[in-house]
Automatic annotation (TrEMBL):
GO cellular component, one term: mitochondrial matrix
One matching Pfam family: MAM33
Listed name of the protein: Mitochondrial glycoprotein family protein
PANTHER family hit by this protein: COMPLEMENT COMPONENT 1, COMPLEMENT COMPONENT 1 Q SUBCOMPONENT-BINDING PROTEIN, MITOCHONDRIAL
Highest taxon listed in the record's lineage: Eukaryota
Signal peptide: none
InterPro entries: MAM33, MAM33_sf
Source organism: Tripterygium wilfordii (Thunder God vine)
Length: 203
């Protein structure tokens, strides 16, 4: 009986591994056969280009450069998963917009939130606006401006319109939401496939 115990334990482990493999393969097939969000409104980059996007990172950086030398940089990443309507985006996104004028070291930085607005239409809100004297990270003691929510509502509207003139609109925010959700799904599938390969090798 003492010799049978290790054999039974090994057989039990093999069955557990096979069951885990089936579950992993089922999840991989499900992810590969579905899209994060079913919609035809995937947005567009407009005049922006993807400036940086690492397979291992959570964020993406876009850039737009004008003939005048002015630059607009946008970085975005998904926020936590939230309760959403069927077919809507499961996560909102955090977006940072930086605008730099030629010949100046200072920049304007806007912290924004991008969210689905029913039917996979997207919108964005501005949460903070900063004037930074230098591109380098400012000292914590440097005054960065008042709370955005305390600004005059007309000024808040005008600042958002200013961003829209720089190409930060529904097309771009829809693109970002789709792009980031696809990126997250790709990373998840890649992780599942590595896990599957590990379990299969152990078996």
């Amino acid at each position: 009986m003492s010799r049978a115990t290790p054999i039974l334990s090994k057989a039990r482990k093999t069955l557990q591994d096979l069951e885990l493999l089936k579950v992993l393969q089922s999840e991989i097939n499900h992810e590969l056969s579905s899209t994060p969000v079913q919609t035809s409104q995937s947005g567009s980059l407009g005049d922006f280009v993807v400036d940086w996007d690492s397979p291992g990172s959570l964020d993406v950086v876009l850039r737009r450069k004008y003939e005048s030398g002015e630059e607009v940089a946008v970085s975005a990443l998904l926020g936590p998963v939230r309760l959403a309507e069927v077919g809507d985006f499961p996560s909102d996104a955090f977006m940072k917009v930086c605008i730099k004028k030629p010949g100046l070291s200072s920049i304007l930085q806007f912290d924004c939130g991008v969210f689905g607005k029913g039917g996979n239409v997207s919108e964005f809100d501005v949460h903070n606006a900063y004037y930074l004297k230098s591109v380098a990270c400012p000292s914590p003691s440097v005054y960065r401006g008042p709370l955005y929510s305390t600004l005059d509502p007309q000024l808040q509207d005008t600042l958002k319109e200013y961003l829209e003139t720089k190409g930060i609109g529904k097309n771009l925010t829809s693109f970002l939401l789709h792009y980031l959700h696809r990126k997250e799904q790709g990373q998840y599938v890649n992780w599942l496939q590595k896990l599957e390969a590990f379990v299969a090798k152990e078996d």
